[in-house]
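Entry 14. Ran structure prediction on the chain below.
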Amino acid sequence: MTTTARPGARFHRRLAVPVMVAALAMTLAAMAPAMAQQAATATTTTTTTTTTGATPPAPAATPIEYVYVAMVTSQGTILLALDKTHAPLTTANFLKYVDAKKFDGTTFYRAMHLDWGDEPSGLLQGGLQGIKVLAPVAHEPTNVTGLHHTSGTISMARYAPGTATADFTIMIGDVLSLDASPASENPDLRPGFAAFGHVVSGMDVVRKIWDAPRSATKGEGVMRGQMLEPPVKILSARRAPAPGQ
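Output, structure tokens:
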């Protein structure tokens, strides 16, 4: 999701798709040793999640305000809870695309499967792939928001911090090395990625898409073999009432 490109760099629309996707792959490739070590040394203190959704952040001193979004795909519906309290800028950015119906007709196009750590592990990526995007949103790191990349968490894809637009990821299993790590000796790990909500229901749909066939030839470099073939359609994304209402 990060790259060494200048934050203000502009890319031709025809180049936006491979660059955006490859940027995440290159960053995760650089992170792999640290992520593998973390997986090997993880303790049992991680919160267990279920197939129906992710565990929301621990209760705060003040009530958390969630904004719910129903994302209808060709494989079923995913209900997202966006954390407006802890990640207000990222949530507002995502809602701009929802309210403008910009996710309609886009796809989930990438399923990254990690071959180490607790299985299943990886992430699912979707969005506009750099086409007709709005202005980027300021980066909200997890060491500020208090959120974490646990299973079912939704997070923003990006180049350098502060360049995220409309591509997003959903965690399959805990991928905590995507959290900010300001003290890390590796500068790529310091800012982390901007988590901003979690799957409330439809994690079975997320898993179904993640397990869908992938092309053996599509994708450049470390992306090779991670592209869904065919991509899975996002039919619509709309604000929704809270569960039970």
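Residues 44 and 191 are 25 Å apart (CA to CA). Will compare against last week's run tomorrow.
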